[in-house]
Each structure stands twice: as structure tokens, then as C-alpha cells.
Amino acid sequence: MAQNILLICGSLNQTTMMHKIAMNLSEFNCYFSPFYADGALGWLSRKGFLNFSILGGKHLRNTLEYLERHQLPVDYGGAARSYDAVVTCTDLVVPRNIRGKRMILVQEGITEPESLLYHLVKRFKLPLYLANTAATGLSDAYDLFCVASQGYRELFIRKGVRPDKIAVTGIPNFDHVEAYRQNDFPYHDFVLVATSSARETFKPDDRPHFIRRALGIAAGRRLIFKLHPNEDHTRAMREIRQLIPDALIFTDGNINHMIANCSVLITQYSSVVFVGLALGKEVYSYLDIDLLRRLTPLQNGGTSAQRIADLCRQLIYTPEAELVAARNGHMRRPAWKLPDVI
């Protein structure tokens, strides 16, 4: 009988990653779930208080629409059956029903800087989600952590992630950016501004200052704004129009194609900065560009999903005794073979 694998989605980026991985696991029964939580977080999400997060709102609607459009089997919350393995893009929340399962964590994209809140979360063992993606990997609730690059491996080890649990695989959606050059986006040689949803997640954002900075960098060149899908578009457009009345603003569309066609990319806190760096664009960010260059995901021709699927396959077939030994740190090396790095 084929084993069951639960793939936990979230944002549309996370959902498409899970789909790509599942496409390489055709011999298993793969089921998908929107991101979910139990306990107090589960109650808050059901009441609509967390609609700004991947637990509800636009993220939930986009995920369900994507799963339906691609006719993928849904098991909301993994409640309908038992699972032999779980693949997820975040460990900031680990529901009780998947704890102890054979689990692979896949890095979604960029991680946030280590703020004061991050250090408080680590020191006082507060819930990881309070530090957002800066705390990615710190749960130790998984068996393998598939990361974007050697630079990220070193970063996660410094944060305290066990080195024997980390596999440098590259990550889907960021591992073959050259393919984005083939597109039908009608504009070329412009300055692209990719905004973030910092305010929607209760972080400070001096948007007028950011817009003025973009104007200065553009120095008279065409400016195109691509708004983050989870921010307040009405407010964002009003703020841009007040300073740049004739700015071209997109609320949807393929931002990767826009990046491929631009001359300059200006970001705040967005994973798309990696697309710009990998394509050799002139890039600006609130984050340190030299660090981002070291963290940029592997470009392996789009094979990251296959690599992650291979590790999932190995994990499922690892004998229980070896798995327990690896989990407890009693083995010098994991029982599985990590894929070669390109």
C-alpha cells in the first residue's frame, strides 16, 4: 500500500513549492492542506483575527483556489487519515497532529533580520511565530531542513540549527531564474519597486520615505511599482500617487517576469530580491546586499523540488531505529544521503 504524505501550504509561494515537490512523489498518496494551527492560534484563525497571516485571509483564499484549479486532493488540517511523512514550509507553528511524524522542513524564501524580539524569543523560549521568519528552523521538530544555499546553511547553524539536519538542496521557485527572461511583460529597462506587507504584520514602514528613495534611485527613469499581494492596495496606491501621480502600479502579475525585464530592482523585505541578484540586476534592499549575495539560492536548473522529493523518499524508508538515533543525535551522520550541490 502506498504511503501517505501531507504537504502543508500557506502563501501562494509556499503552495506552489509544495505542488512542485509532490509532482516528484508520484508513487505516494500526496494530500495538501492550507496552513493551520491548533490551540489558541487555531481559535483566533477561525474567528478571523489572523487574516493578515497565512492562517487566513488572502493567503487561505489563494491557496484553496490554487488547489481547486489544479485538482489537488485536500485534507484540511491532515484530519482525514494517518500520514507517513509531512512536508512543510514553516516550523514557526507545528500543530500537535504532525509532531513526531517524519517531517521535512523546506525554506520558503528570505528570512527576516534578527531583531530584539528574535533574541527575546530565543532567550525566554517564547513562541517562535513572535519572531516571524527570523526564527525559522529553531523548532527542531523536523528530521530534515532543506535550505536555499550554503550561505543559509551557515546562517542557520549560527542560529542553533543542528548541522546534521540541514540539506543544501536549493528551493523551488528560486532555483532557475534564467527561465524568467522568457516572458511577455511589455515593459523593459525600467526601475521596479517591490513593496512589502510590513505594516500588515505590525512592523514599522515609512512608506513616503521609501517612495522618495525610489524616486532618487530612478533619477528620471520610468518607475513601476509592484504591490505586495497581502498589503492594503488602496492605501499603497494613494501614497504612491501623492508623490508620483503618473506612476505605473501593478497589484497583480508575475513579478519574476517584471524583474527579468527591469534594469534596477528596489525592495524592502522580500524574497524577490534573490531573483534580482541571481539575474545580475542592480538591487537595493533594506537588508545588507553583501549578505544577501552570500545567501542567494542555488541555481540548479529547477531541480530543487526533485532533490527534496528524493530526501522525502529516503526519510520514509529510513528504519525507525536509525531515525530515532539520528533524532537523538546518537549518529555522527544522518541515515540519508544528502544530494550533491551544483
Multimeric state of these chains?
single chain
Helix content: 25-40%
The CATH architecture name of the largest domain reads 3-Layer(aba) Sandwich
Query: How many DSSP-defined strands?
Result: 11
Total helices: the number is: 12
N-to-C series of helices and strands: EHEHHEEHEHEEHEHEHEHEHHH
Strands side by side in the biggest sheet = 2-1-3-4-5-6
Number of domains: 2
Largest beta-sheet details: 6 strands, parallel
**Global structural class:** alpha/beta
Query: What is the highest CATH level, the class of the largest domain?
Result: Alpha Beta
Q: Hey, roughly how much beta strand do the residues contain?
A: 5-15%
Radius of gyration: 20 Å
Q: Could you state the CATH homologous superfamily of the largest domain? A: Glycogen Phosphorylase B
Explain what the structure shows.
With 342 residues, the protein is an alpha/beta fold. The chain folds into 2 domains: 4-175 and 299-327, Glycogen Phosphorylase B (Rossmann fold); 178-294, Rossmann fold (3-Layer(aba) Sandwich). Helix content is 34%, strand content 13%. The chain has helices at residues 12-22, 39-46, 57-69, 116-124, 150-159, 207-218, 233-243, 255-261, 273-278, 289-295, 304-317, 320-327; strands spanning 4-8, 29-33, 85-88, 103-106, 144-147, 166-168, 191-194, 223-226, 248-250, 264-267, 282-284. The strands form 2 sheets. It has a 6-stranded parallel sheet. A 5-stranded parallel sheet has the order 9-8-7-10-11, with helices on both faces. α1 (12-22) crosses α11 (304-317) and α6 (207-218) packs across α7 (233-243). The longest helix is centred in the C-terminal third of the chain and has 14 residues, at 304-317. The radius of gyration is 20 Å and the shape is globular. The mean pLDDT is 93.
